[in-house]
Sequence to fold (528 residues):
Amino acid sequence: MFLDLDALKIRYRPYPIGIAQPAMADDVYRRCVESFPPLDLFDNYDKILKPGKKYTLSEKENPKAFHKFIRSSPVWQDIHDEIKSDSFVYGILDVLRDKDIDLGPHYLRPGRRVVKRAKDLARGRLSPDAARLRARFEFSAMPADGGHLIPHTDAPTKIVTLIVSMMRPGEWDAAFGGGTDVNEARDDRLAYNHMNRLATFEDMNVVATYPYAANQVVIFIKTFNSWHSVPPMKGHGSTALRKTLTINIERFL
Amino acid sequence: MLIQNEGYRPPRSPQALQTADVAHEPRLSFENLSFRYEPYPIGAARPVLPEDLYRSLIDRYPPRDLFVYMPKFGHKYTLSEKFNGEAYHRFLREEPLWRAFHAWVKSEDFIIEVMDALRAHGIDLGYGAAPPARQRLLKSIKHALRPSQKPRFRKLSSRFEFSMLPADGGSVLPHTDLPSKIVTIIVSMVGEGEWNPSIGGGTDVNWPKDPRTSFNRLNARGRFEDMDVLDTYDFQPNQAVVFVKTFNSWHSVRPMTGVGSQAMRRTLTINIEAR
Fold:
């Protein structure tokens, strides 16, 4: 696996979230950072009518540009292929299981999955083990000058999210902010948010912050209360970007 | 005074039942539901049934000899579709009042009502009324051809079980419920003044002492000594305790202290599940 999660440290409350650093071998990380896609390939959140101040390049939002870029970059093609593999998806689930976070699905060979699915259908229910999981990723960039992501808990289809920082050491001024906040709703009515309603920063307390730093991965589980956000960054007049690779493992069949 | 299980009376004819008992539709009311949201959504409603109907259901609660003992889950007896299913279905066939109640619990209306009640309290599980069959089929075909980002339609179903815990040591070990469960409703089946609260029998909201065991999506069993008790919903007449299955929905019933008592903590446990 291109990610090294041996040093993963998890906090379990209010929901499981943790960090590993370094997240990648130095040389691989450097090559990924150097070949991070240029901003002109990205879509602006404003343009695609999404809340927050952020740019995205992903197979979901702008698939043509995303796949064209992946094909043009051997480094990212390798990463893409690995992320799309069952060994990556189920490898992450194994790492989490070792940390007492058992999400259930174990890898099943396609043939066994079909048999299990047929048995489930005969019983009239689906077991979690028969679910097909997949991973997808997006390149994200948020301007140091005001970039932000409002509090949310992620869509119900998501299971695990990994946010890999993409910057050269020393490239980012910590005073800008850019950390991922672990939020807790102030109002009881927002405490349960399975369906991923959006909230305002004023609605949230900040329980912890994972500062934006080089070669790290923040990993968390989608739960009913997995509120997180990136508060508006303070790099007024700066052209710096908070660049990340965001990987999602989701259930799709 | 403790409730005794000998209160069971044989069924009457459906005609007699209509005039005497079913003055009200046999359905729960969630009007007085109030929730706590930490560490997971759990609440209680009381009363949930018109008093005369509630009394009739208690009087016709199944007799003890129909139940099976379930040591795996604690010191507990169960009668359900799954455990002793034959006796369960026979009982429902013979008891018009329970049969009517069962039919309502099994209906889509019931599920919609529960989902609406939860939504009214800020708990949106993402389930509404099922779209027409044709639309569902179309959606399934579309999804198979091009898996979308939207959650797939998952059908919900409901079922209920009769549970009895002996006042003398009865318990349910800490657990969070199976991943297939979505909502659990525990309806107390005890007459006014018939249960001595000092015996216990309340449903505890648990909080694991070790944070590493907080995440329990797959429903591993816990031990009482590994849990703190954040809150207790006392075992009270005509009450429903309602909670949502989450990764941390730890709950239990601590061993009751009615030493030597023959009384039973009788409940009806309703589950809404995803298929």
